[in-house]
Amino acid sequence: MTSRVLRTSRLACALAALGASLSVQAQTGYVQPGHIYCLGESDYPVYPAADDISARNPFSNGCIRDLQNGRAAVLLPSAIENIDRVPRDNSLRRHAWGFLDQNGRVAIEPIFEEVGDFRHGLAAVRWQGKWGYIDRNGRMAVRPRYDAAQDFVEVGLAAVTLDGKPMLIDRQGNPAGEPFDEVVRAVRLFDGVPARATVQYKEEYRSTSGERRFGGNGVIITRPLGDKGLYIATNGQAKYGVVDKDWNWVVDPVFDDISLLDDGNLASGYGPDGSVLMTPDGKLIGADQQYESILPVGKAFYSAQLPQRGGFAVMDRSGNIVATLTNEEGQTSQRHAETIVYRSGDNLMALVPGHAAPVTLGAGLSAGDELEGYVLFVDESSRAAGLLTPTG
Question: What order of strands is seen across the sheet that includes strand 266-271?
Fold first, then answer.
C-alpha cells in the first residue's frame, strides 16, 4: 500500500473520528490546536426549545469549524509528517490545520499551526510561528511575517501586528494608510462600507520634561515612590510591586497593597511575609520580621506590630529600629509633638526624633504641657521637673 493511500486512509479515519458534520456549531475566535478530545464549550440556552436537538449538547467540536466561503477549517494528522510518526492516542500531537470543501473533501492539506476562517476569499494561517494569508486554493497570498493577524473585511483590509505594532494591510500585504501612533495597543476591523474600527490605547505616562512612557507588558503604574525614579505598580493581576524607570521590577509584585507614607519617601506594603517598609531606592525593611502591620506615628516614627501581638517595634524615618515596646508600653504611650513618651517599669522614657535609642527621663515623672515641640515634665507633686527640647 502506498504512502498516499495510507495517508488518505488515515485522513478518512480521522474525519470519521471527528464526526465531521459541516453543520457543527460555529466557534468564536480561532481555536487553539491540541485540545485532547476536540471539545469546546459552545453557546448553550438555559431553556432550549423542546424540538431543538442541537441545543441539548453544551459542547461543540473544536477540531472542525463551520463552512466559510466554501471552506471549513479542520484539525487532522499533519501532511508534512510521516504518517507512522503520528500518535494514535488522543494527544493530537503531530496534527495540523487544513480545510475541507463543501463536500467534506480535503481542499487544503493540513500543514498549518493555527488558522482563521475564510473571509472574503482569504484566511489567516500561522506557519512556522508567523501569520500570513492563503487563498481558497491554499496558495500563500500574503507571506507569513506577522505576530498576529485578523480576518479581512469587506473593504479589502485586515488588521495585523508586526514587531509588536498594529497596522493595516491590503490583500497583497502592502501597508494601508498612515502608521498608527505608538500609543495604539490594538486595532480591530469589522465588516461594512465604510469599515468600522475599534482602537485600544496603551496607558501613557509623561514626565515633566515631556518624555512619554507606556504601560503594558504586565505593568500598570499607580504612583511614584520617592524621587529616585521608582514607581509603585501592579502586574495586572491585583498584585503590587515597584518598578524602575525602564519598567523593570525592582520589588516583585507579591503584595496585596502598597501605600505611600507621609511625603511619599517611604511606603508600606502587605504581602505573604507580612508588612514591610519600602525605601525610595527599593530596599525592603522588615522583610524577615513578619510584622502584622506598620503605621506612622506622627512624622518621625513608624510603629510595627510584632507577630502574635508580641509588642511593637518603633522605627525612625529611615526604617531603623530605635526601641521595642511591650504591648502594655505601646498601648499606654503618648505622643507629644513628635516625641513619644512611654513608661517602662518605674522610669519614664522618651523617643526623640534624631536619637538612635530611648532617652531615660527618670522615675516619678509624667508629661505635662507641650508647646512647639517643647515638653514640660512634672513630678508626683505636679511641680515642674524638667523641659525636654525637640532635639532631646
Answer: 257-261, 266-271, 274-278, 284-285
Residue type, 149: A
Query: Concatenated DSSP letters for 267-312?
Result: EEEEETTEEEEE-TTS-EESTTTTBSEEEEETTTEEEEEPGGG--E
Cis before 194? omega within 30? yes
251 near 284, Cβ under 8 Å?
Answer: yes
Which three cell numbers, joined as nine digits, stand for 184? 495604539
Amino acid in the structure at residue 151: D
Query: CA torsion, points 64, 68, 71, 75, in degrees to nearest 10?
Result: -20
Contacts 24+ apart (CB under 8 A), 173-178: 173/132, 173/133, 173/141, 173/142, 173/143
pLDDT higher than 60, residue 248: yes
In contact, 79 and 111? CB cutoff 8 Å: yes
- The closest alpha carbon to 115, from 62, 175, 61, belongs to 62
- By the 8 A CB rule, do 155 and 147 touch? no
Structure confidence at residue 60 (pLDDT):
63
Q: Cell for 372?
A: 512647639
Let me know: does 152 contact 142? Beta carbons within 8 Å: no
Contacts of 221 (CB under 8 A, 6+ apart): 203, 205, 215, 231, 232, 233, 243
The DSSP H or E segment spanning 12 is helix 3-18
| Predicted confidence (pLDDT) at residue 56 exceeds the cutoff of 50 | no
- Over pLDDT 70: what percentage of the chain? 82
Beta bridge partners, 390, equal: none
pTM here is 0.54
Task: Quote the CA–CA distance of 254 and 308 in Å, as a whole number.
Answer: 22
Per-residue model confidence (pLDDT) at position 387:
66
SS3 assignment, position 198: strand
* Cα–Cα distance for residue pair 108/105, rounded to 1 Å: 9
**CA 46 to CA 61: how far, in whole Å?**
20
Q: Name the residue type at position 113.
A: E
Q: What is the DSSP letter of 29?
A: S
Tell me 15's DSSP state.
H
Q: In what order do the strands lie in the sheet with 359-363?
A: 334-336, 339-344, 347-351, 359-363
Q: For residue 36, give the C-alpha cell.
A: 485532547
